Amino acid sequence: MAYIGTSPSNGVRRVHTYTATSGQTTFTGSSTEGVTLSYADTNYIDVFQNGVLLGSADYTSTSGTSVVLAQGASVSDLVVIVVYDVFSVADTVSKTAGGSFDSAVTFDGDVTIGDASAADKKILFDGNAQDYHIGLDDSADSLIIGKGSTLGTTTSMAFDANGIITKPLQPAFCVNPASQQANIASTGNVQVVFGTERFDNNGDFASNTFTAPVTGKYQLQTSIRIDNVDTAGGYYQVKLSTSNLDYLQTISPLFSEDASHWMLNQTILADMDASDTARVFVKQLQGTDQTDIDTESYFSGYLVA
Fold first, then answer.
1. What pLDDT score was predicted for residue 8?
2. Are 37 and 27 spatial neighbours (Cβ–Cβ below 8 Å)?
3. Could you give the CA distance from residue 60 to residue 218 in angstroms, rounded to a whole number?
4. Do residues 152 and 163 lie in contact, with contact meaning Cβ atoms separated by under 8 Å?
């Protein structure tokens, strides 16, 4: 097991034993124990000569790597230097002041962030252009994945206590006409006007048009109610038009008389690139300009993948 600072095999007390030569005063380097002498503070060493503790006047210890006796030792004297480690470790991250790791960090066990009495906690990913975070919204008891350096600034995904996942920014919309489009022209495509937004999660719908914010597969569906269907019309057609492809659904009136209303429905999984658009059109071929697009019509969609 790795440790930060002095390892448990050395402990906080290191013994260095030297056998003196005649007149030797300086003791340094590797000792009989095979450990190189070093100390951080002269106040945290003891020097013994033949078992007798020397006073501070009997030696000098200022270099951090050697002890110099005031009087030369006799041959075969045993000089023992005991160093008491104060664990002065520079390459650490402070518990209270914090800091940063400059390389990968591996944890073999669980990591706990915060406690039951703490405020909301987060892990921050500091990017060049944008920051992201994973954190706990303690007030809602939800795990949050979001954008920005502050928890709750922009929530992209939330996991509640029941495991239910919500994505507040996931592209999704539902709109319908605010008023009836009366007497549509029987000479070509008429764009359906959707004046009421039921919801528009990411703000991607505007001016009767959905614009894909990212490349993906989008589920799109529309149900258009037409009133006063003219049996003299060659056909009626709803077109869900995207930048990549038009999706059509057509009926040919075969009624014995004009129908009061009819539903034209479309459901597709559309391949859309970022900035592609989707719009809805109704086409009446021939007949009288008498057909209306009713407010019960709708257009909706969302990003699937």
1. 46
2. yes
3. 80
4. no
**pLDDT score for 220:** 98
Beta bridge partners of 83: 14, 45
- What does DSSP say about strands 122-126 and 277-285: parallel, antiparallel, or unpaired? unpaired
Both tokens of 188, joined, read 């070509």
Q: State the burial class of residue 78 (Cβ atoms within 10 Å of its Cβ: 0-12, 13-18, 19+).
A: middle
The pLDDT of residue 152 is 77
Can you read off the two tokens belonging to residue 58? 């009997």
- 282 burial type by CB count under 10 A (0-12 exposed, 13-18 middle, 19+ buried): buried
pTM: 0.65
The predicted pLDDT at position 139 comes to 85
Say if residue 254 is exposed, middle or buried (CB neighbours under 10 Å; 0-12, 13-18, 19+): exposed
Tokens of 182: 């009366």
Contact call for residues 262 and 273 (beta carbons, < 8 A): no
Angle 304-242-174 from CA coordinates, rounded to 5°: 55
Count of other CB atoms within 10 angstroms of residue 123: 12
pLDDT, block means (10 residues), the chain with 305 residues = 47 88 96 92 93 95 95 96 72 78 85 69 86 90 91 90 94 98 95 98 97 98 96 93 96 85 95 98 95 98 97
Domains and their CATH numbers in the chain: 1-109 (2.60.120), 122-166 (no CATH), 172-303 (2.60.120.40)
Sign of torsion, CA 168 170 171 176? negative
- The pLDDT value recorded for residue 196 is 98
Strand, helix or coil for residue 132:
strand
Tell me how crowded residue 175 is: count the other CB atoms within 10 A of its CB. Answer: 24
Whether the Cβ atoms of residue 185 and residue 292 lie closer than 8 Å to each other = no
C-alpha 299: how far from its chain's center? 32
